[in-house]
Amino acid sequence: MSEAKISNYSEIGKLNTVIIHEPGAEMENMTPETAHEVLYDDILTLDLALREHAQLSGVLNKVTENVLEFKTLLPDVLEDPKVKLDLLQDVCALHGHNELVDDLMSFDAADLSTQLFQGTLLKKNTLERYISPSRHAIPPLPNAFFTRDAVMCVYDKTIIGSMAHRVRLTEALLLKSIFNNHPKLKGQGFHFDGTKRKSEQLTIEGGDLLVIRDDLLVIGYSERTSARAIDRMAEKLSLGRENLDIVVVELPKIRATIHLDMIFTMLDVDTVMNFAPLITGAGKCKAFHLSCTNGKINYINEYSGLPKALRLFGLELNFVNCGGDNPFSQEREQWTSGANFFTFAPGHVIGYKHNKATLEALNKAGFEIVDANDIITDKVQLPKGKAAVAMDGSELSRGGGGCRCMTMPVHRDAVNW
Predict the structure, then answer these.
(1) Which of 205, 241, 287, 401 has its CA 20 to 30 A from that of 225?
(2) What are the residue boundaries of the structural domains of the chain, listed by start?
């Protein structure tokens, strides 16, 4: 089994290797009353979500060489008894149920993988547990199909997410074990391991980190990513570098903008998708430029918005508006992940079909709109020019994310800027 080298120096380079996760029973392992425990606003229907996610995986398998599945990678590493024990000890300790280690060790690798995704029920054998509203000792992982959040491939190594909510730390532990031990991915090291954080004030998730190019990152200071974590990233990622520029965008700490990629994604070398009210409009988010050298921040400057800050680095961008030019459509389609596109080659992107005003805006900006099923069935070929693949996603978007959230690039080709 050949190793999948980590190489990710942009948001838009041609995709060669990516990790995704097909939703499983964990998606329905909640009730309206318990949905908030796993960060959901509502309960989702698995059959609908599976049909939609099949379009994402189907398109990716047409356009890239190596589509890896989270739930396939995990059983592979669980075949090693030591890896299995170490992981279970970490997961059970995280949730305060060390007594479950021996029981879970008795599962074979495939069944244990399924169990870890679906969650382990809480035995109601004490009064405290009996009256507890929680059904699970180890919670299910309905957010696992958002593979972007818990691990980030940046340059030649990974960052293991320091998740803002404990319920998502299990995902980070599972993915850390995969990157440490899987024959396709192991041995390449971490810039930072967020599962070993010593402070609750140090949180970072992948939806907030955009690799623009080798010397430039854009990071969201958000509900999920803290200022302390951004300082740590500046330190870690600039080690051995004469220059690394980081532009930080200060997001409102609200549900609609949990991550930067919910309001800003790269589509091409000169084109971005944005939620205008917070990126280019009168209420645009403040931006900060951190100039870094070999593990240190040299200075910090503040700017009125992201576009002005990016112009410092020669990026004169075309801003396509999520929801088009109508403020009403902008608000609605941002909420349904209209700005959250995934770029699998320069000018080739995939996003949700139900955000019609956003697709119209893309079409006006020169992107040919292509239906995902037509690509999957070879009814049409992907155009050589700019193209936006439109997939069904009404159910998936109710989970709070879009195509960028559901894809974690491991290897991309370099981009000529």
Answers:
(1) 241
(2) 15-412
Three-class SS of residue 98?
helix
| Structural tokens at position 120 | 């382990």
Higher local confidence (pLDDT), 413 or 32: 413
| pLDDT (average), residues 201-216 | 96
Q: What is the rounded distance in angstroms from the CA atom of residue 8 to the CA atom of residue 158?
A: 10
Task: Give the CA dihedral 266, 271, 274, 280, nearest 10 degrees.
Answer: 130
81-94 and 169-181 helices, crossing angle to 10°: 160
Report which residue type is found at 382.
L
pLDDT at 2: 61
- HSE, CB side, 13 Å, CA atoms: give it for residue 269: 8
Catalytic residue among 92, 153, 322, 405: 405
Using CB atoms within 10 A of its CB, is residue 231 exposed (0-12), middle (13-18) or buried (19+)? middle
405 classed as catalytic: yes
In CATH, what number does 15-412 get?
A: 3.75.10.10
> Tokens at residue 4, please?
């999948």
pLDDT at 38 (0 to 100): 75
Confirm if 279 and 262 have CB atoms less than 8 A apart.
Answer: no
CA distance 221 to 169: 19
Is the CB of residue 168 less than 8 Å from the CB of residue 117?
A: no
Phi, psi of 307 (to 5 degrees): -55, -40
Short-list 363, 245, 350, 261, CA closest to 293: 245
Q: Cα–Cα distance between 55 and 366 in angstroms, integer?
A: 23
3-class secondary-structure state, position 341: coil
Mean pLDDT of 77-93: 98
C-alpha–C-alpha distance, residues 171 and 166, integer Å: 10
Looking at residue 286, the DSSP 8-state letter turns out to be P
Of 22-36, 213-227, 253-267, least confident by mean pLDDT is 22-36
- The answer to whether the beta carbons of residues 354 and 334 sit under 8 Å apart is no
Rounded to whole angstroms, the Cα distance separating 248 from 282 reads 18
Distance CA 19, CA 68 (A): 5
Is residue 358 within a helix (H) or strand (E), and if so which, with residue range?
A: helix 356-364
The number of beta carbons lying within 10 Å of the beta carbon of residue 18 is: 25
Rounded to whole angstroms, how far apart are CA atoms 373 and 214? 34
Query: From the CB of residue 97, how many other CB atoms can be counted at a distance below 10 Å?
Result: 18
pLDDT at 259 over 50: yes
